[in-house]
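hey m, so remember when u said the tokens were messed up on ur end? i reran from scratch. heres the input so u can diff it against urs
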Amino acid sequence: MSGDDFNQMVKVLDDTRQIVNALNLYGLAIDAHRYQLFDQVFAQEIEANYNPPVFYKSREEIKSHMEQFHAPLDGSQHNIMNHQVIVNGDRANSISYVVVRLVKGKGYFQMGCYYDDSWIRTPEGWRIKTRFCRGNFWEGNPGIGGEVAPGAVLEPLIHTLRHAGEAGEVSYLNALVRN
């Protein structure tokens, strides 16, 4: 392996580490109610699609909504795992599995989902530019944290990775084909 190849490999490994750290920071920020940490996770302008009809176009918008949604809960736990990352210069794609548990009193809501993210390198570091979040399963009381969005109905929110992939909607799977 040449010195240039080695340096490139180290750079990709470090970029991957930074992206995984930012993914994990997202869960910590929500669970600890430290939404200012989203500044280290999301770009200022974003396209985040969390099970329609929940869409965000800016970091400030997602910070505000997540804070309002999680405030009445007694707690939450976002387990973000199975990180897969593809780095391509100043852009990257990742996919992560997520199990979210929301708790209020003795009630709970739990959902298994995935985050399909597109990343950009900024002067401050890697930031999510687009996020596609879909649920694979849920159990418990979906109204535990209040209404996710006006008129939202949970049943249509389940859209498995298999079905999204078959529809060509998963940017990470699309990036695998390109690489």
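this time it looks ok to me. The radius of gyration is 17 Å. if urs says something different then somethings off w ur setup not the seq
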